[in-house]
Amino acid sequence: MSSNTDPEPTRIVVSPDGTPIAVFGSGDGPRVPLVLVHGATADHTTFRAVGPVFGRTRPVFAIDRRGRGTSGDAATYAIEREFEDVAAVADDLARTFGGPVDVLGHSYGGRCALGASLRTAAIRRVVAYEGAPVPAGSSYRPDGLLDGVRAALARGDPDAALSGFLSGVVGMSAAELARYRAESVWPARVAAAHTIVRELEAEVGPAAGLEALGAVSVPVLLILGGASRSPFAVGTDAMLARLANGRVVTIEGAAHAAHHTHVQEFVAAVEAFLDS
Known about the structure:
- This protein is of the alpha/beta class.
- It folds into 2 domains: about 10-140 and about 205-275, 3-Layer(aba) Sandwich (Rossmann fold); about 145-200, no CATH class.
- About 40% of the residues lie in helices and about 15% in strands.
- It contains 12 helices and 8 strands.
- Strands 1-2-4-3-5-6-7-8 form an 8-stranded mixed sheet, with helices on both faces.
């Protein structure tokens, strides 16, 4: 994986609306290429722990989603454009490698991966790590969280906006937030805090909902952290009930960051699914 000090993408894929999407390639081997799609406020560097492990036996391509990193953005936002971004990357790689690719998305990136698979035949399998929509009447966010994030951004405090999102939606404790703040990626996460509101609003729209994404027909692995907040399990169960070809793996002891905290278990679960 590329790092924050080496931000040059290995390819740029232009999405149908003209937005350039940065792709960071690494790894090699005989297995099917794997596209990695990050979640809210993150960028391609969120896969810095698992990416090199996947790359031992397959080409790996981590993207910067629109609005962050070295990718572009558009004047208006819709999650459908994110679906098209991931589909465009898959199409481009399928032409390069001569066949469909696999896609792994974390959180909101899982939603984007699922939506992309409805827009192209270039995606063979999808892994969605805690990216499933929740049923009507359920929500990932506590009451007032969206207003709190908006207020923090309005007063020019993106750090508070990000912290409120991570504690309220992800479930990070004060100690976990303190450790995260000490990491070198924190400033980049704060810089992307303005994208939180649009993603929180988009995730409850019909295009990102259970009925739309439940129509995915390619094989799907839903990964769940055994220690994650209950809405993640609710969404995973509801999504599994709708998928034509889905399965669930729970990583015990993990929460919403198993790709950092449980690297061996995470990679093993993904590889077993992709190779099955």
